[in-house]
Design goal:
Structural class: alpha/beta
Shape: globular
Order of helices and strands: EEHEEHEHEHEEH
Number of strands: 8
Strand content: 15-25%
Helix content: 25-40%
Bound molecules: flavin mononucleotide
Radius of gyration: 16 Å
């Protein structure tokens, strides 16, 4: 990707749970990303990545997953709150890359059955993002009481999320552009 080409912003659906409501959130975000000019996206579903659980970290590379992250300018993480933390499988998957994340932007969308929109899982993920070399933004997505937010076909029921998501994505895109410029033009000492 070059400074002038489209930004590539994959969305990672961070849970393999059967019946996951986060899937609706991920598809909503994918739709909002696709609507925008100058952005290419793809959905990465942790359920479809089959990493061994008898090892961990960069010993477990999936060539396609690593190549996708390497090409990315930014990531959107869609993360349900499980006991105030993040799904273990998401961490296992994220840990398989390292250099691929460096100086890329990340925006986190918390998803919860409760009323706090995954704020606790987001707070718990922030230090992990930093250690991976990702650059967080100061907007999040907070999808509260997600069981009431979408109809059975996944259609969003509360239009307020359109405006909030627009703010979130604008900030993410700004950071993605700045970091792309930096990666391409600002030498590391
Ligand atoms: C193991 C587990 C722990 C959970 N812990 C919380 C929690 O701490 N706070 C909360 O609001 N919802 C919690 N939930 C509910 C999820 O947030 C809810 O299932 C929501 O739909 C998002 O997760 P999903 O994508 O798996 O559906 C938990 C669900 C599971 C399966």
């Amino acid at each position: 990707m070059t400074t002038s080409g489209p930004l590539f912003i994959p969305a990672i659906l961070g849970t393999p749970r059967q019946g996951r409501m986060s899937e609706h959130v991920a598809h909503f975000l994918l739709g909002e990303l696709t609507k925008r000019d100058g952005i290419e996206t793809v959905l990465i579903d942790v359920r479809t990545l089959s990493f061994s659980i008898t090892d961990a970290g960069e010993a477990l590379k999936d060539a396609q997953f690593s190549a996708t992250i390497m090409l990315a300018d930014a990531l959107v993480l869609v993360v349900p709150e499980y006991n105030h933390g993040y799904p273990g499988l998401l961490k296992h998957v994220l840990d398989t890359n390292l250099k691929e994340y460096i100086h890329k932007a990340v925006g986190i969308c918390g998803v919860s059955a409760g009323g706090f929109g995954g704020t606790r899982v987001i707070q718990n993920l922030l230090p992990v993002m930093r250690e991976l070399g990702l650059v967080t933004i100061f907007w999040d997505g907070n999808f509260s009481t997600v069981q009431n937010l979408f109809d059975a076909s996944g259609r969003l029921q509360d239009p307020a999320y359109l405006k909030r998501t627009d703010k979130f994505l604008k900030e993410l895109v700004w950071m993605a552009k700045v970091l792309r410029y930096g990666r391409e033009n600002v030498p590391r000492e």
